[in-house]
Amino acid sequence: MSNRRLTCRFLAAVAAAALLVLPLNATEAQTDPATVPGKTFAAYEYWWYPIDFVDHFIEPLSSQWEVEGNGAALTQHGMLTLDSTRRGSLGVTLRGHDRARGRWEIRLRGTRFETGRSDYTVAAELVPADSAEQHCGAQNIGFAGFRPVVDHTARFHIRSLPDHEFTSVKRRMNLTNGYWHTYAVQVTAERIAWFVDGAARAVENRPEALSGIPLTLRLQLQAVPGEAMNRSRLQVDTVRYFTLGTPSNKAVRGELPTQGTYADAC
Predict the structure, then answer these.
(1) Which of 115, 163, 174, 215 is the most buried (most CB within 10 A)?
(2) How far apart are CA 203 and CA 115, in angstroms?
(3) What is the DSSP letter of 2?
């Protein structure tokens, strides 16, 4: 083969390789991973470790998740999926991993399939591990709560006996169908902090907010009692729990929640 032909082939190969690395136009370019929703975790931003529990839902839903309510709870494609009916709540509660303190983080999204009826609330809460301590939700810590599509705000709460409630919100959120976000909560002996998409949003340190009781994770589609509901879905692809064995690598700061009263305590 002549040198000229070899040279032409070499230049053609170089040109083809260059096409693989040249920037694409705006309609073809891949999204910058740093801007993908739900990819920023507080655990990475604040250097949380050691990790004590993790579930990526690769296997069928294990017996450590207790299912309660109407609908289907299963794992698929590396996600926990809760599919509601049109009546009643549906949830799963983690058993055997009770902790009074620590750091919990999830990656979650919600989907609404219908309109014309009442909307489910997608909720992630820490609830008392002992059912005798639940008092109708009066000792829960909610670190994600929203209605898919309807809301643009995620809501957080802490409740303690006899009827205290501390609330905060994260506004201007994209909560359309299938849009991922990460949510986390850190509970210490002195304070409780909420995180969304890797950033601290609110910090509560008033003594009356801190129950100190063992808690566990509950994920739920919450129905409006007695009403017909729009069929909806909750999906989580990551659940992790970290101990407080190491401090955060930077200060955890956020607004002070609003104190009020929880009327449904029992």
Answers:
(1) 215
(2) 36
(3) -
The ranges assigned to domains in the chain are 38-261
Burial class (CB in 10 A: 0-12, 13-18, 19+), 257: buried
Q: What is the DSSP string of 187-233?
A: E-SS-EEEEETTEEEEEE--GGG-----EEEEEEEEPPTTS-B--EE
Q: Greatest CA span in the chain, whole angstroms?
A: 91
Residue by residue, pLDDT tens for the chain (266 residues) are 444 443 444 333 333 333 223 232 322 233 343 445 578 999 999 999 999 999 999 999 999 999 999 999 999 999 999 999 999 999 999 999 999 999 999 999 999 999 999 999 999 999 999 999 999 999 999 999 999 999 999 999 999 999 999 999 999 999 999 999 999 999 999 999 999 999 999 999 999 999 999 999 999 999 999 999 999 999 999 999 999 999 999 999 999 999 999 999 99
Round to whole Å and give the CA distance between 198 and 183. Answer: 8
Tokens of 218: 């509950």
Strand ranges (DSSP E) for the chain?
51-55, 65-69, 71-76, 79-84, 90-94, 102-112, 121-128, 141-146, 154-160, 164-170, 181-187, 192-196, 199-204, 215-222, 232-242, 258-261
Is 237 in contact with 56 (CB distance < 8 Å)? Answer: yes
Tokens of 174: 């994209």
Query: What CATH number is given for 38-261 in this structure?
Result: 2.60.120.200
Q: Are 229 and 214 in contact (CB under 8 A)?
A: no
- Find out whether the peptide bond into 128 is cis, omega within 30 degrees of 0: no
